[in-house]
Amino acid sequence: NNEVNLMERIKMKSEDLFKDAKNYLPGGVDSPVRAIKPYPFFALKGEGPRLFDVDGNSYLDYCLAYGPLVLGHSYPPVMEAVGQQLLRGSAYGVPTEAEVNLAREVVKRVPCAEMVRFVNSGTEATMSAIRLARAVTGKKKIIKFEGAYHGAHDYVLVKSGSGAVGLPDSPGVPEETTRNTVLVPFNDEEAITNLVEQEKDEIAAIILEPVMGNVGCIPPQKGFLEFLRKITSENDIILIFDEVITGFRIASGGAQEYFGVTPDLVTMGKILGGGFPMGAFAGKRELMERIAPQGDVYQAGTFNGNPISITAGMETLKNLDKDYYRESESKGLQMRRGLGDILEDAALEYQVAGLSSMFQIYFTPTKVWDYAQAKTADVEKFNTYFRTLLANEVFIPPSQFECCFISAAHTPNDIELTLEAMEKGIKAAEK
Ligand code: PLP
Fold it and tell me: Who contacts 102 (Cβ-Cβ below 8 Å, separation ≥6)?
């Protein structure tokens, strides 16, 4: 009897913690997407492909902290390197050899990167890259794609991705701030051509996720990135690839290597910090030389180039070799083909999206090439699918408009188990 009571109490732990959390943290969480209904599970630990909660459950994890954990949870070499670094201190306020080494590694891998500035988040990276683009062009406007998420700062918080769907303009963001942020649909060459024709003397930059990862997963149509490269070069507009998700994920040099199109600036984060807070922006030397103290464009941070994050990032990149990218392609294919087969067997015309280690199902018969098409998906069906997965020990991001990730720690067998759960989830959604 005691044992039963104990079990019941244990099952309640996440629920109780959430009640308590709501007293101290707005919405009980520190980032909106985490407020899973009716209550989120609270993490105890992560190991390889699995996340364990405080109630004694474990989940095959395809959220992976929204992307950074490309090698899975607690990857031993990363944890050991960080442990060693911790013994030598956690922050110095002076430069380290390690940050020079990581910058060199970024330059080696990423085609557009000739110089790098390390910051603390993807948000800081895009904020700074936009400032730099405005400074070098002397222009103010930026073009952003509907549904693209570039972090939580004011300039880009307009129709931005999953977290802000339904709240396209947050209160507290002055209209003056977003007046210079112009929106266009992704993959729409005509809209961009018209806009650039009319406003080229005012447009400083086009910023994009080369594969949109914050409205599910939308790849660029063939030729779209090349088109953006051409029109920006011809009109003194800086092309910024936001590779916070795609960087080091879909290829060693990110989307710019994968698609063979080199932007002027790139923003990075997530994987680059190996599971610790990190962001960076990088680009052509003549642009990056404008960053202070070499140049006049201000950017600074107490924790910029933090030795813990730098160490974790370096150790992570060491493990992202040719084998990793090959296996990542094959596991991604296994997942997307498996999902395609399940949908075909059930005679459902939903969309399986993604590339490399990124994937998602859209619960819509509409082909998805932009935000408006993504929004035709049936969110209720997705929610049932999500909850069924959770009950079957599979955790994916809790929104139709996020992207799922596969890590190096997931085995083909894990993916088979996941597909079984997904079949149940898709059937449950159709009931
Ligand atoms: N850019 C993209 C493409 C992202 O997906 C994200 C975060 O999800 C960001 C920028 C913001 O990064 P961070 O959450 O580290 O501030």
Answer: 118, 310, 313, 314, 317
pTM of this structure: 0.96
Q: How far is the CA of 2 from the centre of ligand 1 (A)?
A: 46
Q: Which of 164-173, 328-337, 396-405 has the lowest mean pLDDT?
A: 164-173
Which numeric CATH code is attached to 76-318?
Answer: 3.40.640.10
Cα separation, 344 vs 371, in Å, equals 25
Q: Catalytic residue at 149?
A: yes
Say what the pLDDT of residue 167 is: 41
The Cα 425–Cα 390 span in angstroms is 9
Q: Does residue 405 line the site of ligand 1, with CB under 6 A?
A: no
Active site residue 141: no
CATH class of 41-74+321-430: alpha beta
As for the ipTM of the complex, it is: 0.99
Look at residue 142 and give its three-state secondary structure.
strand
